[in-house]
């Protein structure tokens, strides 16, 4: 049987930022069925569509360059595939591009994410100073924890590849490198900048770019 792996870029914005990754997966399953895609299925008693994401977005964050890999039972021209998906999509979910993968190409692995956010006016002066101090450091270790995972140490300075801040507009843009093990997220960076209490209060990050290890 001929199988075709395809890498799809899409955006998830608007009210869709309030649904979690599992709910997004369910939405994709229904969408693929409506679009009548010949999706490849896993084996076993409960077969599932063969799809994968190199990085799931945190709840509440919009993504404008997300990546999905899908396996099909037959080849479809990328442009046709995108048209099929967008014709059946829901508000806030837009498919941007698709590329058929060669057999030699490995599964997508996230290399880095670029986030941007607007810092409120009252925090901009201190934020500029803290960024200057942060860039002078060789290592900035903070605690990372969640409801399911105990506290672990992560190095925020090591993970931040680039950070730019426009004090006039409040635009903060940061590239965070993906590492093995516990990863640095936006929340850890905002903690270092003493802005973590503003996360999802006055500061709403969005991911604008995903770079992959093989691209």
List the helices and strands and how they pair.
Elements: E1 4-12, H1 21-34, E2 51-52, E3 62-72, H2 78-88, E4 93-100, E5 110-118, H3 124-136, E6 141-144, E7 152-155, H4 156-159, E8 160-166, E9 171-177, H5 186-192, E10 206-212
Parallel strand pairs: 3-10
Antiparallel strand pairs: 1-3, 1-4, 2-3, 5-9, 5-10, 6-7, 8-9
Please explain how this structure is put together.
The chain has 215 residues and is an alpha+beta fold. The protein has two domains: 4-100, Pseudouridine synthase I, catalytic domain, N-terminal subdomain (Alpha-Beta Plaits, 2-Layer Sandwich), CATH 3.30.70; 110-212, Alpha-Beta Plaits. It contains five helices and ten strands. It has helices at residues 21-34, 78-88, 124-136, 156-159, 186-192; strands spanning 4-12, 51-52, 62-72, 93-100, 110-118, 141-144, 152-155, 160-166, 171-177, 206-212. The strands form two sheets. Strands 1, 2, 3, 4, 5, 8, 9 and 10 form an eight-stranded mixed β-sheet that branches. A two-stranded antiparallel sheet has the order 6-7. It is elongated and about 60 Å long. The chain starts with a strand and ends with a strand. 19% of the residues are buried. The mean pLDDT is 94.
